């Protein structure tokens, strides 16, 4: 691609120190926030430290617990001096997979693949503009957190986190056309849920996204 740079050979096997270190770190969580598998996707990679700080603060306040082990891919955004220093100052054990082997952080990679495949299908099935993919991936996460999983027996991830039974009667199909209340109403499609129990809608004519407390969708 370019000339003048020395050839760098990346070892296929981890060094002895890394192997010994990883043996001392648990691989399965036995309590909330015991181990966090963390990863970001797309243009957010350059914001990974700020995203993790915000996430750590949020889950810490909500649960009253602390993150003990953080497992990430060994990409440059996760091994910067600032990221290392933050984890060290907060008492977080940062477990890094070898570079160029994101598959070793399988939990994150598998979940990202599932979510992205669902997003592609949803956008294509409903002919939703591709620039709304962030809204689509947000609703995918919302639904998966309220769906059964093999990891948590007889509970959804949301119930396991909050301890409360969920009511999902508010769920609607992504991309449905909002029923117009009168002939003057402009058409909207449902693209997500708001944190205040409202719905996020995309107005077809103006291209704007806004929130509505209640919607009547045409499910026929």
UniProtKB/TrEMBL annotation:
PANTHER family: RETROTRANSPOSON, UNCLASSIFIED-LIKE PROTEIN, TRANSPOSASE, PUTATIVE-RELATED. It comes from the Eukaryota. Residues 47-165 form the Integrase catalytic domain. GO terms for molecular function: nucleic acid binding. This is Integrase catalytic domain-containing protein. Gene3D superfamilies: Ribonuclease H-like superfamily/Ribonuclease H (3.30.420.10). GO terms for biological process: DNA integration.
């Amino acid at each position: 691609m370019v000339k003048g740079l020395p050839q760098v050979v990346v070892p296929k096997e981890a060094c002895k120190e890394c192997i010994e270190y990883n043996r001392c770190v648990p691989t399965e969580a036995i309590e909330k926030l015991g181990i966090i598998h963390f990863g970001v996707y797309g243009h957010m990679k350059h914001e990974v430290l700020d995203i993790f700080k915000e996430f750590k603060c949020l889950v810490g306040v909500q649960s009253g617990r602390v993150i003990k082990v953080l497992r990430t891919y060994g990409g440059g955004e996760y091994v910067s001096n600032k990221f290392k220093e933050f984890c060290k100052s907060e008492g977080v054990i940062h477990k890094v997979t070898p570079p160029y082997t994101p598959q070793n952080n399988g939990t994150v990679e598998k979940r990202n693949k599932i979510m992205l495949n669902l997003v592609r299908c949803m956008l294509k099935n409903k002919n939703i503009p591709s620039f709304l993919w962030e809204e689509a991936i947000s609703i995918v996460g919302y639904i998966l957190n309220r769906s059964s999983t093999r990891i948590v027996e007889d509970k959804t991830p949301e119930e396991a986190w909050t301890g409360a039974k969920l009511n999902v009667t508010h769920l609607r199909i992504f991309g449905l056309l909002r029923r117009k209340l009168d002939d003057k109403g402009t058409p909207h499609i449902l693209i997500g849920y708001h944190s205040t129990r409202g719905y996020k809608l995309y107005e077809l004519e103006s291209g704007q996204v806004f929130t509505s407390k209640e919607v009547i969708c045409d499910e026929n």
